[in-house]
Amino acid sequence: MDGLPALLGGGDEPDAFVPRHRLVALARHRRPGLRLTRTGLVLESLIPSILEQKVTTDEAYRAWRLLVRKYGEPAPGPTPGLSVMPEPRTWALIPSWEWHRAGVDDKRASTIVRAVRVARRLEEAITMAPEQAQRRLEVIPGIGPWTSAETVQRSHGAPDAVTVGDLHLPGIVGYALVGDRDTDDAAMLELLAPYAGQRHRAARLIMLSGRIPPRRKPKMPRVDIGLL
Length: 228
Fold this sequence. Notes:
Blueprint (H helix, E strand, L loop, with lengths): L3 H4 L14 H9 L11 H10 L5 H15 L1 E2 L8 E2 L3 H5 L3 H6 L4 H11 L2 H5 L6 H8 L7 H11 L13 H10 L6 H8 L6 H11 L19
Helix pairs in contact: 2-13, 3-7, 3-10, 9-10, 11-12
């Protein structure tokens, strides 16, 4: 209950954001209640981010759902059927074949196991500034800038933790702001430079604007390794 205000965006400061592009200003006008939430839980943000590495969103959500339902604890309260995330030790003891059945390859599973073995040290990162927290997370092999940014966006409500290394985001930002769907990470960061301190919020608003490049190739195919 103590963390509820932050979870609802009570600690966010949306008024600190100054739109520099008409599209961003319009997106903000259409989403006046948008706030960045802060969960205060590092592992609970980190593990789903690791599951999302190099796979489709549907695959990552499916893996999270299967593993939490099988190994998590029943959630407190009157609603049956809800589960909370397993404890770190439980994650570490999940057999290899259960990761496989959930569609999680050895690389992602090993990264999660390495992370939960130092769970206490990682949870301490919530007391750090987002940049420091990212550096601590990236000490773990298998956790890079993409995963650390995705984590602190959720755990810290970090308004400047822009995601780099994403397959789609640079093209979306480039297309929305300058009409260039082939924008790379370096060019995206240059476009977002006017929003220094608020780059993640700017990217969120661009995503919410609906101005995304038309698809020109099929979606990334889903490969269920649990069936292999």
